[in-house]
UniProtKB/TrEMBL annotation:
Compartments reported by the entry: Cell membrane
Protein name, as recorded: ATP-binding cassette subfamily B protein
Signal sequence interval, chain numbering: none
Cited Pfam families: ABC_tran
Start and end residues of each ABC transmembrane type-1 domain: 234-330
GO molecular function: ABC-type oligopeptide transporter activity; ATP binding; ATP hydrolysis activity
């Protein structure tokens, strides 16, 4: 497992500037939310405006009640109607406040869920649009990881930004009331809150920097958690006694992160406490000032309740505003990751695409192809030239790591040659539309994926548009002998595979291989590529599968990779690869006569050594 050096807190610090810069992603974010559900968005915005104005309205009505009571008790006012009127209004406002509060959390919840679904779909689609070579790049994985794992954070961000707008309106309405009576209180208020705001911003950046610089380690932790508690790995872990090895590795890494994070959290809350004490002192200074004003006859008792209530409310609103601000700038840093990921350029699209031939006329040609995997200097393919004629059945053989699979990946355009070119009917394969070009191939990968879906879905994956063509699925299954597997399953083609979901059935390695082979047959493809198609099959199944394969591909072009010479020998031509070069090429008989590597390997296998 490639590991980056453990980070210290000072590594990769995200400055104040980037923290503010990331706020610029918020409009784009809200555009996405707006597109998600316009009605809900408007409802939420409307409710928040109402909710924002309610606190000042309630405080004002409270003042009116207080003044009315003073009128009655001190000045002998006989008409109580103004008092009851105000009490009734306050009651209505309180009920309304509860109602809009609930409406807000309801709309935010639904909108958040819908946004979540949409953004997850975007991430899945984007991953599929990106060049396959990026999938093997660790920096890409980090981006993908952050974009994927911060979904909940983005939903919080939405509520926080909307909440912030609400708090801002509230603050303005309260400030107007305060300015009207005692403008000096505002200055006192802002001064007492500001240091705590700066403190929060500073620590939230540090926490984000830490989380970001530890993305790879967090992925490693997830990976260790996954292999440490997983049905697929349980056998080996038990048998090899790997538990303490894994626990130790997990613990060392997790503790290092925990310690760094703990020291930050402790510092953040200690400073936070200090600055909050400062806030409380200023609140009581203001309170004493207001009491003094009442005692000296400057303001009424009703105004005292309004002012102290407004001041208190303003202070908590401002605190809320600043802490939300730091949370928003923190989450918007993650938002940046999400948009950075969505902005990774999709695969290069050739503007001057040429139409694909309906049927291959000449065939494929590798011309002086060299290839090294991205971020590697190691040439895996070295000056390879060969032709696969239309309708030819070609086989690649060679020892492990010789470059056989790599050649098929180049043919399938998962990667581009570092130099040299690959032609189809005389035209560089890059000039064809990639998706259409790849449609040409029916492929069984050596490391095919075992989808924990039903058998039917597992086979249909080869041509998912035909998922409802039962006959086609059955035919593909017959060709690969998967039908024999199906006949033993309780729910037949509807049998859920794997153990992850209810009523799932695990298959043997060979049974899975038959299912995966059926997937390759689902497409009536022009070219078949089978990489180790029979490696897990028993001898009888292997010869039967191969017989059917030959029948199927009579006039099709095909590439087969195999270590089993019984399979390989039937090919029209065999390419023997060694360390990224073609060592020999010819029919089985020609190569046997050559008496070089092929003949040696064949003889060894025939004698039962391989
Ligand atoms: N994604 C990758 N990134 C970097 N190197 C890779 C990658 N995939 C394969 N390689 C390297 O390329 C070389 C050739 O691998 P390839 O899979 O083509 O061999 P192969 O001939 O198919 O072997 P086998 O018979 O074991 O399947 C190996 O040395 C391998 O380490």
């Amino acid at each position: 497992m490639a590991r980056t050096q453990p980070k210290s807190l000072n590594d990769q610090k995200i400055g104040l500037k980037s923290s503010f810069d990331s706020l610029f992603f918020i409009p784009r974010f809200f555009k996405e939310i707006w597109r998600t559900n316009k009605t809900l968005f408007l409802t939420s915005a409307f409710c928040r405006i109402v909710a924002a104005l309610l606190p000042v309205a309630i405080l004002w009505v409270g003042k009116l009640i207080f003044d009315a009571i003073i009128q009655i008790t001190t000045h002998g006012e006989k008409d109580y109607s103004a008092l009851w009127h105000s009490v009734a209004i306050e009651f209505i406002l309180v009920v309304l406040s509860d109602l809009v509060g609930r409406a807000i959390s309801l709309t935010d919840g639904i909108l958040g869920d819908q946004y979540n679904i949409n953004s997850s779909i975007k991430i899945i689609k984007k991953t599929n649009e990106i060049d396959i070579s990026l999938l093997e790049n660790s920096e890409f994985y980090d981006k993908l990881d952050r974009a994927r794992t911060q979904t909940a954070g983005r939903v919080d961000l939405m509520s926080n930004v909307l909440g912030q707008a609400q708090t801002t309106i509230s603050i303005f309405s309260l400030v107007i009331g305060l300015i009207y009576f005692e403008p000096y209180l505002i200055v006192l208020l802002v001064l007492s809150i500001f240091p705590s705001f700066i403190n929060e911003v500073r620590f939230s950046q540090q926490q984000y920097s830490l989380a970001r610089s530890w993305t790879s380690e967090r992925r490693e932790l997830d990976y260790l958690r996954f292999i440490g508690a997983n049905d697929k790995t349980a056998k080996e872990i038990k048998l090899f006694g790997l538990t303490s090895f894994l626990v130790e590795r997990f613990e060392t890494l997790a503790t290092r992160y925990f310690k760094l994070n703990k020291s930050l959290v402790v510092k953040r809350s200690s400073y936070g406490f200090l600055f909050n004490v400062l806030g409380s002192i200023s609140y009581y200074a203001a309170y004493v000032f207001i009491i003094y004003r009442v005692l000296s006859g400057g303001i009424t008792l009703g105004e005292l309740t309004f002012l102290s209530g407004s001041f208190n409310r303003l202070m908590s609103s401002l605190r809320d505003f600043f802490s939300k601000f730091t949370r928003i700038s923190e989450s918007s840093l993650y938002l940046k990751d999400y948009f950075d990921f969505l902005d990774i350029p999709s695969e290069y699209k050739n503007e001057k695409e040429v139409p694909l031939p309906e049927k291959i006329k000449i065939g494929f040609e590798f011309k002086n192809v060299y290839f090294a995997y991205p971020e590697s200097d190691n040439q895996i393919v070295k000056d390879i030239s060969f032709v696969i004629k239309a309708g030819e059945k070609i086989a690649f053989v060679g020892q492990n790591g010789a470059g056989k699979t790599t050649l098929t990946k180049l043919l399938l355009r998962f990667y581009e040659p570092t130099s040299g070119e690959i032609l189809l009917d005389g035209i560089n394969i890059n000039r064809y539309n990639k998706a259409n070009y790849q449609e040409y191939f029916g492929v069984l990968f050596q490391d095919f994926f075992k989808y924990e879906f039903s058998v039917k879905e597992n086979i249909a994956i080869g041509k998912i548009d035909e998922i409802n063509d039962y006959e086609r699925i059955q035919k593909a299954a017959e060709l690969s002998l998967a039908n024999e597997v199906v006949s033993e399953l309780k729910y037949g083609y509807d049998q859920q595979l794997g153990k992850r979901f209810a009523k799932g059935q695990e298959l043997s390695g060979g049974q899975w291989q038959k299912i995966a082979l059926a997937r390759a047959y689902m497409k009536n493809a022009e070219v078949m590529i089978l990489d180790e198609p029979t490696s897990a099959l028993d001898a009888k199944a292997e010869s039967e599968v191969f017989e059917r394969f030959i029948g199927l591909i009579k006039d099709k072009t095909s590439v087969i990779i195999s270590h089993r010479f019984s399979t390989v020998r039937q090919a029209d031509r065999i390419l023997v690869l060694q360390e990224g070069k073609i060592l020999e090429s010819g029919t089985h008989n020609e190569l046997m006569e050559n008496k070089k590597l092929y003949a040696q390997l064949f003889t060894l296998q025939a004698e039962g050594y391989l």
